């Protein structure tokens, strides 16, 4: 019995010290332990996308979205897969430092609710828009439309 307790204790200590290998790809995608993860229910500006601020000046909103996700994502990141998308990526709700990353991106205005898939973040988006956070500080093109236009070029 004592041996079992020691083995169990060492397993718990070892598993508690294992950290996920996490890399932010863009404002709505991560690589977690070698698995590409798309944050479910949100759509962030593309990395090279630009937006207009409150003074009508262009700024790199795609890079800002990436930087914000990078800032809020830690090595304690965990993801709950909802499904696989057509590109075989894991579509998931991810958590880090006790926060829902999907929700945080929308709440801070660095992503919009992706209503083609779910309405889960519509209320959060409305609050970010009202407060003028992130991309809501000025004008921007919805990421989905931006991607469609870039494909036509």
* Contiguous uncertain segments of 5+ residues: 1-17
Total beta-strand segments: 10
What is the 3D shape? globular
Provide mean pLDDT, rounded: 89
Structural class: alpha+beta
What Rg do the Cα atoms give? Answer: 18 Å
- Tally of helical segments: 5
Largest sheet: 6 strands, mixed
Oligomerization state of this entry? Answer: single chain
Straight-line N-to-C gap: 68 Å
3D structure, described in words:
- With 153 residues, this protein is an alpha+beta fold.
- The protein has helices at residues 2-17, 61-72, 101-107, 122-131, 143-152, and strands at 22-26, 29-32, 35-39, 42-43, 51-52, 58-59, 78-84, 90-96, 99-100, 112-113.
- Strands 1, 2, 3, 7, 8 and 9 form a 6-stranded mixed beta sheet that branches. A two-stranded antiparallel ribbon has the order 4-10. A two-stranded antiparallel ribbon has the order 5-6.
- The longest helix is centred in the first third of the chain and has 16 residues, at 2-17.
- The relative contact order is 0.18.
- Mean pLDDT is 89; it is low at 1-17.
Put the structure in a nutshell.
The protein has 153 residues and is an alpha+beta fold. It is built from 5 helices and 10 strands, in the order H-E-E-E-E-E-E-H-E-E-E-H-E-H-H.
How are the SSEs placed, and which strands pair?
Blueprint: H1 2-17, E1 22-26, E2 29-32, E3 35-39, E4 42-43, E5 51-52, E6 58-59, H2 61-72, E7 78-84, E8 90-96, E9 99-100, H3 101-107, E10 112-113, H4 122-131, H5 143-152
Parallel strand pairs: 3-8
Antiparallel strand pairs: 1-2, 2-3, 4-10, 5-6, 7-8, 8-9
